[in-house]
Amino acid sequence: MTPVVRETLSKVPAVTLGFWIIKILATTLGETAGDTLSMTFNLGYLVSTAVFLALLVLLAWRQIAASRFHPLLYWATIIASTMAGTTMADFATRSLGIGYTGGSALLLGCVLASLFVWHRALGSISVSTVHEPTAERYYWITITFSQTLGTALGDWTADTNGLGYGGAALIFGAMLAILLLLYAFTTINRVALFWAAFILTRPLGAAVGDLLDKPVDHGGLAFSRPLASAVLAGAILLLIMALPKRRPGRAPERARTYRFVPNQITCRGPLPLLRAFTPTSSTAKSASRSRRANTASGAADHIASTPPVRSAALAAASPRIE
C-alpha cells in the first residue's frame, strides 16, 4: 500500500500544529476532569478509574468499528484515555504506595513493551498505518499507557523536585521545544520523535491542569475543577470544528498495468505478424482472446475462399492429358 493510500485510509488526524494544540488541551482536560470525579465528587481513584476505563473501552470500540475518521469520536477517545490515565496513575502512585519513581518506571516499561510488540507484529508503529483493527488496538493501548505515564511524570516533577506546577510546565514545554528543533534540523527518525512528543504533552497537560485547580497553598490557582473542565472542553470543540479535517475518501483506483504479449498466428497468405499490448486484467484478456480468435477465423475464411492460382511456368511444365 502506497503512502498516499495509507494517508487516505488513516483513522487518526493529520499531525499538524492544530493536532498538538488540541492534544495539550485534551491532556489538561483529562487532568482536571479526572480530579473532578476522584476528588471534587469524592469517588476515589479506584471507582473513578473504573468509570473512565469503561468509557474508554466503549469509545475505543466505536473508534475501531468506524469505517472512516470521525474527529469528534477520535478526540473524545483521547480525552477518555487522559482521564483514565490521570486516575490510574494517582491510584498506582498514591493508593498502592509505589511512589512516583516506581510508578513512572513501571508505566515507561508498559509503553516500551507495547511499542515493541506492535512493531514486531505489524512491522511499523507509524500512525500513518493506523487504518485497520489490529493496528488500532495497539495504537489505543499504547496511548493509554503513555497518558498514564505522563500523569506520573508530571506529578513527580512538580512534587518531588520543588519546581511546582508552573516550573514543571516550563520544563516539559522546553523539552517539547527541543524535540521541535530536532525535527526541523536533524534526520532523527520521525516516528520516534512523534512518540516522544506524544508522551511529553501528557505531563505538560498534567502540570497545567494541576496549576489551574490545585489550592493556592499547594502552588495552584484554585480554579473550580468543573468550570475549568467545561472551558477546556469548549475550547477543544471550537478547535475541532474550526481546523481543517482529514477528507475521508476511497483509496485511489489502482492504475492499470500493461504487459507486452506477442500474438502470433501462422497461416497461409500475406497475414503479418500480429503484436499487441494486452491489459493484464481478466476482462481485457478475454476481450483480447476474442479479438484474436475472430482475426484468425476471418483470415482462415479468406484463405479458404480464395481460388488457387497457378503460375504460367507451372502450367507450361505440367504434362497435358488428352
Write the layout of secondary structure elements.
Blueprint (H helix, E strand, L loop, with lengths): L2 H7 L7 H24 L3 H22 L5 H25 L3 H24 L10 H28 L3 H22 L4 H24 L11 H18 L15 E5 L12 E5 L2 H24 L6 H6 L5
Antiparallel strand pairs: 1-2
Helix pairs in contact: 2-3, 2-4, 2-8, 2-9, 3-4, 4-5, 4-6, 5-6, 6-7, 6-8, 7-8
Number of strands: 2
Order of secondary-structure elements? HHHHHHHHHEEHH
Gyration radius, in Å: 34 Å
The geometry reads as: globular
Structural class: mainly alpha
Helix content: 55-70%
Strand fraction equals: under 5%
Count the DSSP helices.
11
Mean pLDDT: 81
Structure, explained:
This protein is mostly helical and 322 residues long. Helix content is 70%, strand content 3%. It has 11 helices and 2 strands. Strands 1-2 form a two-stranded antiparallel sheet. α2 (17-40) runs antiparallel to α3. The model is unreliable at 247-261, 263-283 and 309-315 (pLDDT under 50).
